From TrEMBL:
Entry-linked Pfam families: Acid_phosphat_B (PF03767)
Keywords: Glycoprotein, Signal
InterPro entries associated with the record: Acid_phosphat_B-like, Acid_phosphatase_pln, APS1/VSP, HAD-like_sf, HAD_sf
Record-given protein name: Acid phosphatase Class B
Stretch forming the signal peptide: 1-21
GO MF annotation terms: acid phosphatase activity
Amino acid sequence: MGTKSWVMLGMMSLLLGIGVGDWNIMNVKWKKQGVSISLKNYCESWRMNVELNNIRYFEVVPGECVYYIGKYMTSTQYKVDSERALDECTLYLNSFFKLTGDGKDAWIFDIDDTLLSTVPYYKKHDFGGEKLNRTSLEGWMKKKVAPAIKQTLSLYNEIKGRGLKIFLISSRGEHLRGATVDNLIKVGYYGWTGLILRGSEDSDKEVQKYKAEQRKMLIEGGYRIWGIVGDQWSSLLGLPNAKRTFKLPNSLYYVS
Ligand SMILES: *[C@@H]1O[C@H](CO)[C@@H](O)[C@H](O)[C@H]1NC(C)=O
C-alpha cells in the first residue's frame, strides 16, 4: 500500500473517528491481500525490514511511519533491544575471548547512534521524515551535545577493562575531530587507541568500502578484530571483517 492510500485512510478514519476518545490512527485496520492490518503493523514491518537489511538506500522514513519510528526510537523497547544486542557482546566475550597479551586484541565501535545518540537532533527533524541536511546535522554535531547511549558506554568500559584496544571508525569527517573528541569525553568515553574519521580522500567513497579498508589496515598492523558494534550495516559488512558483528537498532536513516 502506498503513501496515498494511508493518507486516504487517515482522512477517512479522521472523519469517522471524531468523537471517539481512544481513536488512534496506528490501530485503524486496513485490508492487505485479504489480511486485516493496522498502520502499526505496516510500520513495524517497515522497521523490521530495515533492521534485516532488506530495505536499503532509503533517504527518508516513509511519511506515514514517521510517528511510529519516532515513538520506537524514543521508547523503552528501543533501549531494551539495544541492551540485548550489547549483552550478546558480553556473552560472546565470556565464551570466546582470551587476551593474548601482545596488545593486538581489538574491538571496533561506530560513533553515531552507537556510542552517541543523534535522536535529539532527529526529534527536531521529523524523525527521519525530512531529507538529511548535512550542514544542519554537522552544525548540531559541532555543538557537542549528543548524549551517550548509556548501554553502550558500559560495554565500552567493560571491553576496555578486558584489555582490548578500542578503535572508533566513523563516517564523520576529519573536520569534526575536535568536536567529536570533546563530545565523547564529555559523556564518559575515553581511552580509545584510534579515532578514525573520513579524510578528504575518503569522502566520496561508499562508507562500507571506507570502513573495510580501515579494518584492512588494522589487520595489516597485526590487530585481531574480535568484534564490531554498529547501527548501520555499512559498518558491519565487507571484507576483511571481524570475528563477530553486532547490530544496534536504527531506523532513522540509512548510510550506504
Ligand atoms: C540546511 O541547513 C542549513 C543550516 O541550518 C541551512 O542554512 C540551509 O538552508 C539548509 N538547506 C536546505 C536545503 O534546507
